[in-house]
Amino acid sequence: MPVLVLGLVLGLGLGANASAAPVRHVPPAEVTAGSPLELVAEAPPATPKLVLHYRNIGMGAFATIELVRRDDARWVAVVPADAVVVPGIEYYLDAGGEIVFASPQWPHTIAVHASAGDQRRARDLARVEGGRYRVHGAAEYVDYGTRTVEGERLIDRYYRLDADFSYRLLAYPLEELRFGYTRLLGDTETADTAMCTGGAVRCTAEAGYKVGIWVELGVGLIEGVRLDGRILVMATQSAFNIGGRAEARLGILDASHVALGVESMADVGTNGYFRLGWGTVPGLPMAATVEVSNMPDADRPTGVRLYYDIARDVGHGVRIGLRAGYAARNQVVAGFTSGANMVWDF
Q1: How far apart are CA 87 and CA 33, in angstroms?
Q2: What's the start-to-end Cα distance of the chain, in Å?
C-alpha cells in the first residue's frame, strides 16, 4: 500500500512537470525613450497563453499584452513607443496565469534612457528655463566723428534699431527661426555732389533705410556648432533692395563662444566681425567684438569698431544689456559706439 501511494505521488509530480511550460526570457539591458520595446520569450508551441504585464516605473496598475508566436520556439510582445518613457519599464510574464518571469511584487526593471536628441533638447531648454520663444529688441548709436573740410562739417554717424521674435524649433539640425525688423538711418559724406548746396563740393546726406524685414534660420549640425543665415528686404534711399547676414558660432550665444560673421546690405554697406563671448560670471554674460564696416553707405571708406557688451539677468527670463565702444574711419577722427538691448525668453 505505501508503494502504491508513493507511485501515485511520483506519477502526479512527473505529469505536472511535463505539462508545465518551460519559458526562457533574456531581458534587454536598456532601451531608448520613444522607441518600441520588443520582448522575446523562448517556449515550445504547446505553451499556455503568454502574457506580458508592464508599467512605467512609479505607476500603479500593469497593462497587458499577449505574446504572439514568431516561430516554433519564440514568442514576442512589443511595448508601444509612446509607453517607453524615462526612467524605465517594469514587467513580468505569465503563462496561462502561472508566473514564469519576475512577479507583480518584484517586477523586472529595464532602464529607459532619453535619446541623444532629447538630451540635447533638454539642455537647450534648461538654459532658457524651458522657454521656446524669445522677444529681442536692440538700439545702437554709432558716431565715427565729425570733420570740417573746406568750411563744411562732415557728419558721420548712424543709429540702428532691431526688433525680432524667435521660435526655438529644436528639430535638429534646425534649431531656431527668427522674424525681425531693422531700421538703420544716418548722416554721412555722400559721393553724389549734386546733393550738395551752396556750391559745396563735399557734404553729408541721409543714408540707410527706414524699413527692413528679415527672416533668419539657425542650423546646428552638432551641439555647440551653429550657423545662422538671414535674408533681408529693405527700402533704401534709392529703391527696394535685399541684403543678408551669416554667422558661424562655436559655443553658446548667451555664454562662452567665438563667432565670425558678415552682413551685407545693398546701398548701405557691408560689415564683417569677430566676437568673443564669455559667461564666467553667473548671470552676467559679456562679449568683445571687433568689426570692420563701411555702413551706413556702401560708398564710404571702411572703418573699424571695437565694442564691449555686458548683460544682466533680472529674472523671469528677462535680460538687459548695454554696449559701449570706439569707432573710427581713419587715425585722425574717431567717435564712439553705444547701445542697449533687451531679451525675454518665455
Answers
A1: 9
A2: 86
The predicted-structure confidence for 256-290, as pLDDT tens digits, reads as follows: 999 999 999 999 999 999 999 999 999 999 999 99
Cell 506519477 belongs to residue: 11
Q: Across 96-156, where does the E strand assignment appear?
A: 98-101, 108-113, 133-143, 147-149, 152-154
pLDDT over threshold 70, residue 3: no
| Contact criterion met (CB below 8 Å) for 273 and 303 | no
Residue-wise pLDDT tens digits, 99-119: 999 999 999 999 999 999 999
Question: Where residue 30 sits, what CATH number does that domain have?
Answer: 2.60.40.10
Query: Is residue 7 a part of any domain in this protein?
Result: no
Q: Write the DSSP string, 83-97.
A: G--SSEEEEEEEETT
Cα(220)–Cα(121) distance, rounded to whole angstroms? 12
* Shared-domain flag, residues 204 and 264: yes
CA distance 111 to 90: 9
Structural domain harbouring 30:
23-113
Q: Report the predicted TM-score, pTM, of the whole model to 2 decimal places.
A: 0.78
Q: Which amino acid is at 112?
A: V
Eight-class DSSP state of 271: E
